[in-house]
Design brief:
Blueprint (H helix, E strand, L loop, with lengths): L17 H5 L14 H4 L5 H14 L10 H13 L8 H30 L2 E8 L5 E9 L2 E9 L7 H9 L3
Antiparallel strand pairs: 1-2, 2-3
Length: 174
């Protein structure tokens, strides 16, 4: 018994097991190894994650088709790749820094499309839709070979829906 024995991970010797040498079942050879991060992090059941996703969409009144957009899919992939240590930015950081930074390339796109109208012109299109509160909206979109730009979106719930509405809504607005 005076001999010192090296502990082997996950194995025990027949009569002289690590457990019996230490005198307690608390000291098995497995407990002598540090746990890895994946072992320490409790893995949530997929159905629980799906329930949280559904709850998020419902409580925030987000259209369900968002889950099919490349932007949402890319966001989820990047968060998973980053790992469980990702912390969402604050409301203030999102509003004052991240959104304005994301808006810059959108503004550049719109400016370039509008510049192209000098050469190609554009087609004005409209689309109406109704929200869950039964309000009717009209979207005014300018389309050209360089791209489409949303020019305006208005609540037209109290308006008569006909051709003169489009003329009044867009062409003679202040």
């Amino acid at each position: 018994m005076g001999k010192s024995k090296k502990l082997k991970s996950g194995t025990s010797e027949s009569s002289n097991s690590t457990e019996s040498q230490m005198g307690s079942s608390l000291f098995t050879s497995k407990s002598l190894h540090q746990s890895t991060m994946p072992q320490m992090i409790k893995k949530m059941d997929k159905s629980e994650v799906d329930k949280m996703l559904a709850k998020f969409f419902i409580l925030n009144n987000i259209s369900f088709n968002v889950v099919q957009t490349p932007a949402f899919i890319d966001f989820i992939k990047v968060v998973v790749e980053f790992g469980s240590t990702y912390n969402l930015p604050s409301y203030s950081t999102l509003r004052t820094k991240l959104i304005p930074e994301a808006k810059i390339p959108v503004d550049e796109y719109v400016a370039n499309v509008k510049k192209s109208w000098i050469k190609t012109g554009c087609t004005i299109m409209s689309d109406t839709w109704t929200d869950i509160k039964h309000r009717v909206f009209i979207n005014i979109i300018a389309y050209s070979p360089s791209g489409a730009v949303l020019m305006d979106s208005r609540d037209i719930s109290s308006e008569k829906k006909n051709g003169s509405l489009l003329e009044r809504s867009y062409f003679y607005s202040d």
